[in-house]
Write a structure and sequence with these properties.
Helix content: 10-25%
Number of strands: 5
Distance between the termini: 39 Å
Largest sheet: 5 strands, antiparallel
Number of helices: 1
Amino acid sequence: MTTVPAASSTTALSRPLAWQLVFDGVWVARRDGRFAGMVQCSSGDVYKLTDAHGNVVDTFTTLGAARSELQSGS
């Protein structure tokens, strides 16, 4: 008889992101050790968020807003 563990109630998006500043103006996010996306700050304090596939999600006026967007579902 094979026992299958119960599905976790924690979804992937509810797991926290680990952020790392990799060089000036570029932050990389990882979830469970896997690349989840990144934020790049360009001139004029515009923060460009890209997802794990390299697609541009949006631009933001603050780093916090870009990071929150990725955590919430991108």
